[in-house]
Amino acid sequence: MTRTILAFLAFSPLILPQAPAVTPARVEGRLVDAGTGEGIRKGWLTLRGAGAGAAGYTTVSDANGNFVFEDVDPGRYSLSAEHAAYLRSNNVSGNAGGQINVGAGEIVKAGRVALTAQGVISGRVTDEGGDPLPGGVQVQVSRWRWDAQTGVRTLTQSKQTTADDQGNFRLSGLAAGNYFLSAYGGRTTAAFDDRTVMHGAEAYTTTYYPGASAPDAATPITVAAGSEIANMNLSLRKVRVSRIRGTARDISSGETANQIALHLVPQGAYPISPVTNDAVAVVQNGVFEFPRVMAGNYTIVAPDNAGSAHLVGRYDVAVAEADISGILLPLGPGAAVEGRFKMDSGEAASAGFVFALRSADGAGLNLASKSDATDATARASGIPPGRYWVDIRAGARADSTYVKSIHFGEADATLKPVDLGSGAQPALEVLISPNAGTVSGTVRNDKGDAVAASQVVLAPASRELGGIQRLVKIVAASQGTFRFSGVAPGDYLALALEAGDAGALRDPAFREALADQGTKVTVQEGSMLTIDVPLIPESIGAAALAKLQ
Question: What is the CATH number of domain 25-115?
Answer without folding.
Answer: 2.60.40.1120
